[in-house]
Amino acid sequence: MTSDISERLKLSIQAIHSTFNRTDKLSHITNLHPVETTDGKFTKVGVAFRIERLLFEPSEPPLVGLEEYGSVVANAEIDYLLNNFLSAKSEIWDLSPSVFSQSVSAVFSHAQEKDSVSIIMPYEIGYDLIDKNYGIRWDNETNGFVYMNNGTKIRIYHMRDETLRNKFLIIDKNAIKTEFKKQISPIGNGVSRLDVEVKEIGALQLRFEIKTVLKFHLQNANGIKILEIPAK
Amino acid sequence: MGITDGNLGALTYPYILLALGLFISGFSPSEHFEGYDVPVHYGIIVLGILIFLYGLIMIRIDYWIGRKHSENKNKLQEAELEEYKLKSRLVKLQNSAKIKELPSLTGKKI
Lengths: 232, 110
Prior knowledge:
The termini of chain A are far apart. Chain A has helices spanning about 5-25, 25-30, 70-85, 95-110, 125-130, 160-165, and strands at about 30-35, 45-50, 90, 115-120, 135-140, 145-150, 150-160, 165-170, 175-180, 185, 190, 195-200, 205-220, 225-230. In chain A, the strands form three sheets. Chain A has a seven-stranded mixed β-sheet. Chain A is built from six helices and 14 strands. Chain A has two domains: about 5-85 and about 175-215, Major capsid protein gp5 fold; about 90-175 and about 220-230, hypothetical protein PF0899 fold (2-Layer Sandwich). Chain A is elongated, with a radius of gyration of 20 Å. Chain A is an alpha+beta fold. By secondary structure, chain B is an all-alpha fold. Chain B has helices at about 10-25, 40-95; one strand spanning about 100. In chain B, α1 packs antiparallel against α2. The model of chain B is unreliable at about 1-5 (pLDDT under 50). The interface of A and B includes residues 49, 145 and 211 of A.
């Protein structure tokens, strides 16, 4: 890589890592374990694209938008996780607050740590629940929505409706172990799940591969509960 | 629904009307209260004032609940908007045709 574009490239890679860290949900929802090598059963989650090398020339205006791939990969991880686990048995939910509360308590009773439970819900239905008596509110301390269960805050993550397909997931962090291939991060403490690989394709193009390499293990089936709202 | 997003507002209007009714009837000519040993009209006026204050407090609580609901809803909309903004910047970049996405890596075993 020639030095004329390497500085711009470095900044872009840092921005992708930074967006990934900011939008990362997997580390809050599952238990992470870094590994050095993979065994052929790990899955790549991410995107690849070609981009004109010209865009990184110092004479060009700063490249805006590329950092979003960090968020794309962070969301793809959750999509992949949900694809693996949303097919598990779900309960039909009539949106009654008492069923919601009972389901959260059921997962809670199996959790080893009380702050390890999270709720993942679709955006659109999330709007409706805020207006009703579910005990969901904004929390300045965690800078996110929380559900109060017997004095304990449970973090709520909102996901795109098309990913969740009208399903609510209540999950204990220790129910799923995520093994990931350890990568070197250009920011923070130097360890990351995200790998940003850049290769030169001829003189005019660069090939980006932005990915994480993961393997999920279900450790406690009682630590996951899925509520489903039937389609209208 | 009340005057805000809270649910108490509509319930308070009958209280306010009742309070006004009692308050006004408390000032009715005193022959309406003949035969009573206690000054009933004072009682009615005080009751009217109390119910009126109760109504005002309910409206205030309703306003407070409604404001909280709106704030919470806005926070969620902001988060969604932020995601949308990021995505639209990427789409703009992709539409400039200087970036070409290759088949997704997701699912490939390693």
